[in-house]
Amino acid sequence: MDSIKKVKEMLKCYPENTKRMKELEQEMAQFIPITASEVLEMLTFPGKTGDEVRVQRQRSNNRIFYIATSYRRLAWLINHKTEREMTEEYEKAAKEVEFIRYAIRALPSFYRDLMTYDILEGRHWGEVCERFSLSGVEFLRKKEKATLRMAKTLERQYQYFGFRKEELCDGNRETAGKL
Prior knowledge:
Layout: H1 3-30, H2 36-42, H3 61-105, H4 109-120, H5 125-132, H6 136-157, H7 165-168, H8 173-178
Helix pairs in contact: 1-3, 1-6, 2-3, 3-6, 4-6
């Protein structure tokens, strides 16, 4: 994918990404880790039906320590994987959101105001046209020009936002050579 397409995709996904970031922040704040006791309660012997036999049974003192430790480890792994998945999803959305915010701030004044009002504030195109006294066609031209400038920013600074070169290139050698 070339940088212009990537920027257009990020602009299109900006509202969903900001919404998803807020949702994930709430999820992470409300996350309650699972305990070893809860893991033990969920596990049953396989193959039993109806009256399932619980895993926990009378065991010797030596085995109790081993079993408790293994369930603590399993609980830790479950919690760690859950937190990592939420963090990775948040990171993906955040890097796109932060790049869009940065690239808009880097635009010249008129384009910065136009894109701020349109993208960051989420205004309808009619409101943007009215505020900046533009026709619909002129607004699209200005937005396209701003997008091209943002794509150049992405080409120069993609690594600072955590993007990989492969994410910006569509296999075209000319595009890859520019990065």
